[in-house]
Amino acid sequence: MYRFCTGDVDGDGSIDALVGVVKNTRFHQEVARRIFIFKQVDGKVRPLWLGSRLGAELVDFRFVDGCIRALETDGKGKYAVIDYEWKDFGPAFKRFIVKNTNQKNAIKQFNL
Fold first, then answer.
1. Torsions phi, psi of 82, nearest 5?
2. How many CB atoms lie within 10 A of CB 41?
3. Per residue of the chain (112 residues), what is the pLDDT tens digit?
4. Distance set, CA 10 to CA 55, 59, 69, 99 (Å)
5. What is the dihedral of CA 35, 39, 44, 46, to 10 degrees?
């Protein structure tokens, strides 16, 4: 686990747990950083979303203003900071905070 945060991801009024894990998934066999989201249902922890990936290679994430803010890279030296919002099945692209930038600038924007 590399990250843990909480927030109302799906907008139902209850707090969900966002867990950053490093592992493979059924649909992406390479070991990489992933986001798993859990919620409480009838007093039990249940998966809300066990994501294979958001967009590009995930570096880090936070929960900001009702969105999952992701720091991603293309693996070739370009970085982006992207907000994702909950849609029917899972996180969906909302907007770029910054894209096609270097690592230093992306981290700065990610941490604002």
1. -130, 135
2. 11
3. 999 999 999 999 999 999 999 999 888 889 999 999 999 999 999 999 998 789 899 999 999 999 999 999 998 999 999 999 999 889 999 999 999 999 999 999 999 8
4. 19, 22, 14, 25
5. -50
